[in-house]
Known about the structure:
Elements: H1 5-19, H2 22-33, H3 37-62, H4 74-89, H5 94-107, H6 114-124, H7 137-144, H8 150-165
Helix pairs in contact: 1-2, 1-3, 1-4, 3-4, 4-5, 4-6, 5-6, 7-8
Amino acid sequence: MAANPRAAAVAALVRQEQDGFSNLILDAELRRRELDGRDKAFASAIFYTVLEHRGTIDSILEQFLPKGLAKLDAPVREILRAAVAQARYMQVPVSAAVNEAVKLTRSFKKSSASGLVNAVLRKACVYDLDKAVFKDEIEKLMVLAPPAGRSRSFCTAITRRRHLAS
């Protein structure tokens, strides 16, 4: 597998999903791959952007995965998340995010999923969240609220719901 920042970020995300402790996992992966300063910064940005926006990213991806995100192999799931993070939050052109994700899918020995990755990302990277339909206000807040305000918004929604129920 070629040592590149996207591969390092995806590998760290796969390990983080299984083991936790994001900062330790990312540091170990960056050292293992011997990336230079710019590549380390890019891999770190991808990694932390995915973690910060995971709820929104997963909600978007779920729109285009009939069997759901959880059914995918961990590397494919993290490749999708990383590509959406790049296209939506890191100003990486959609075409570059999609193309690199397809290459990464092959480098992770998941070639059979490259068509799925391509098709899902072409839709997910340009998905308009303003047109999303949510089952309730809490789900909407969990997907759309800024990461820093999620817990406050969530608590407000729960309090409001309890107050209305009594």
